Amino acid sequence: EADIYQTPRYLVIGTGKKITLECSQTMGHDKMYWYQQDPGMELHLIHYSYGVNSTEKGDLSSESTVSRIRTEHFPLTLESARPSHTSQYLCASSELRTVGGYTFGSGTRLTVV
Amino acid sequence: GQQVMQIPQYQHVQEGEDFTTYCNSSTTLSNIQWYKQRPGGHPVFLIQLVKSGEVKKQKRLTFQFGEAKKNSSLHITATQTTDVGTYFCAAHDRGSTLGRLYFGRGTQLTVWP
What we know:
heterodimer; A: mainly beta; Immunoglobulin-like; seven-stranded mixed sheet; four-stranded antiparallel sheet; 49% strand; globular; B: mainly beta; six-stranded mixed sheet; five-stranded antiparallel sheet
């Protein structure tokens, strides 16, 4: 079944640690996105990609990096976790012209202690 | 970048009452999309409107796109407890469906039984 998968679902980590949040989709979508969201609140775009070897910064990109080596995979790395990074991280994907809207993953709930 | 303003931020209704959320832009939009996010969940794509003055219905939900393509609304008739969640509008700039979507801040709907 075509879908978008995020791992881990929950993560508690210490301040200063480097972490990578995984996102994979099986829909063959060209475009992928990372959002940060506190529960039920505004979606903040962190990074996005239009395809392999293409990445763009969003509105909250300064403390993280992404890569797009394969179409289906779009990992997000926080180089040094801080308590202010505690939030939910949502990955999404869409077709090139976004005709059908974004498909979101179930998210990773990150807590930095 | 594109600013999409969404109001109200919160709405509390009794079951059976109607609910409306509004999305406004100062510039002409290429399209408007609507998403629903249940508490603890992730946003789920509901619908996309493209044409000026377009109206679409999904059971008790009615979606409208303004004649000038600068505003949109989502109306729920006779709310049920299953309607609880945050509703987001999102839009592309006029003439573009390739770029990023701009999300509104969302309207959190609470339905009392």
